Amino acid sequence: MNREMTEPRFRELLQAYGADFTRWPASLREAAEAFAVARPASATWVDEQRAVDRLLDDAPALDPSPALLRSIAEIPLRHPVAENSGFEPFARFRTALFGFALAAAMGVFAGFAVPEADDTEASWDDFSEIALALDLSEEIAP
Amino acid sequence: MTHANDELEWMRRTGEGDAVAFRKLTDLHLTKIVNFAYRLLRSRTEAEDVAQETFLRLWKDASRYQGKAKVSTWLHRIAHNLCIDRLRRKGEQPTDAADEERASQEPGGLLERKRVAGAVEQALAELPERQRAAITLVHYQGLSSAEACEVLEVSVEALESLLSRARRALRERLAFLDREGVAS
Hints:
Largest sheet of chain B: none
Oligomer: heterodimer
Shape of chain A: elongated
Strand content of chain B: under 5%
Strand content of chain A: under 5%
Largest sheet of chain A: none
Structural class of chain A: mainly alpha
Structural class of chain B: mainly alpha
Largest interface: A-B, 42 and 54 residues
Shape of chain B: elongated
Distance between the termini of chain B: 32 Å
């Protein structure tokens, strides 16, 4: 069973993958375990690498922050479905059409909203709405 | 434990814009990707930026995933490339001064453990980037040697060489802990 596992190769693999044989390439695990059983002297080399494994295990691990979790959860909302599906061949055309319609509506609206002396405040409100619509269109556009 | 077929199905559905499937993949892989990036970059902020970018690419490119590599390997490869870009742009390894400050203010009970953890983290950070990536993928991320080779785009022999040199360097740099009886 351990005919392919020589001492130099065993030590090489031990040095690379450590003392936990589950981290070794699957095809070599059985041979490695058999070698370790057949060669009691290998216990010293294994122990040396186990100490390195333990030290590595002491390095701290992180949990994702709430801010990151929120950002990741928002990805589908920020990046529209049509871009991803590949099943909506007219998605770009629809987006362009939407942009064109919005621009045309704004032109018509701006034509009516040329400020007159006595309704400046109302016009500013109207333009704010247009500006909001523009911002939204940028969010929606790819 | 999920079945690989579940992940393939979630990838397919994510490619069609299914946010629920995307969420399942996120639940499964986000913590690992954050930690992988953190071990390479040594900065929570940078690691979380990389994780966010990785999952944004997952969302956008899932429809192009062909199932040749495991989802985990695919994600690690994206994250690895993003980390390398950042390290090369900066020309040095970023650290979080705030994290180090917090560690130094821990109360007595945790101090020794924090000291050991800090020493290990420092020793890992001092490794050359390729060695650090190799040991992170195999030891911490639990990738098989074949998967780690795929992420790093190296042969098995090259991976084993990177791992051996990394472990030898860590053992030498952390020998003082052994002498104190911490590592035994």
